[in-house]
Amino acid sequence: xxxxxxxxxxxxxxxxxxxxxxxxxxxxxxxxxxxxxxxxxxxxxxxxxxxxxxxxxxxxxxxxxxxxxxxxxxxxxxxxxxxxxxxxxxxxxxxxxxxxxxxxxxxxxxxxxxxxxxxxxxxxxxxxxxxxxxxxxxxxxxxxxxxxxxxxxxxxxxxxxxxxxxxxxxxxxxxxxxxxxxxxxxxxxxxxx
Length: 193
Known about the structure:
alpha/beta; four-stranded parallel sheet; three-stranded antiparallel sheet
């Protein structure tokens, strides 16, 4: 099941009104999907938006170009969410060295440790015994270039793309520190972009 959220900007600060859309498989294993839509009302201060792996460069040139095209609009959404009290967590995997010493990085490192209900792993693959297949083919790792780009390591990314602002009130992490931040702040709703 996939969920896609879009922020509806309104004059009121509370609650957030979000258009939620998800794909539901019509029959287990059939590969046919049906869209379901609804509007969610979420309190801004109980919501976090996690910006995931919007790197400055990708191993695939096409993916790097797509990130560059998406980033300006994503930055607008991040700014609108932040203005409504949403806590922003930037999660550009494997780039924490770039953020060393920054207040946003320290905020994540210093968050009170929390015990999650299940073990948080660095990487989790789809579990076909518990989860339906994705409604997309992701076997190419995000590369649709011809010829296919050479996949790393070494990975070319060094930070999050600069187009997406990391504000002083945000946090930066690529680990279970994100869970600590969510628990510490009483976050009950999470949007991943």
